[in-house]
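REVIEWER CHECKLIST
Item 1: Sequence provided? yes
Item 2: Single chain? yes
Item 3: Sequence as submitted:
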Amino acid sequence: VLPLLLWPFLKVFLQETLPSRRVETISPTHPPVGQVVFGDGRAWPSLLLWLGFLPTMVVLYLILNWLPTLVEAKGFSKVVAPQASLAFNYASVVGSLVFGVLVDRAGPRWTLSLAYAVVIAGLYALANATQLGAVLWISGAIGFFLMGANYALYGVAASHYPAAIRGTGSGVAVGVG
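Item 4: Structure as written out by the authors:
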């Protein structure tokens, strides 16, 4: 119910943010999904977006669902295991804000590459961590970089499709991921 109550406010206050896209007209008919995703030279960018979303979503869901269990399996108390998830989630908020700015300023290629390299290193470090403090800090770092990259990838996906088909193109990329 809350999203329905917020809808009028969002409609009024959340206008299109890309000035170059404002001049496009939205067709009352929707093109086929294949044309949206692969038409007008969008095949390779779409495939690359899918390739980016797939490991991002796999690692995200594995971490969200299994991090407390993994912490317990390392021999830590069942009471402190959820702290790793808290560290992951709190750091992810900051990471999403930071990576939004970084992708705007430096572009997505190197920013996202760095994020994924740190996530890989973080997962390796988490697997080998033996101290609770290290587990918490590494969980937070993984949240920062993984969710930062994830949300930046949503923005990158939206920028590759014209406004009239942006939702469909981005939705397919996320869905495939």
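Item 5: Key structural point noted by reviewer: The chain has a mean pLDDT of 85.
Item 6: Recommendation: ____
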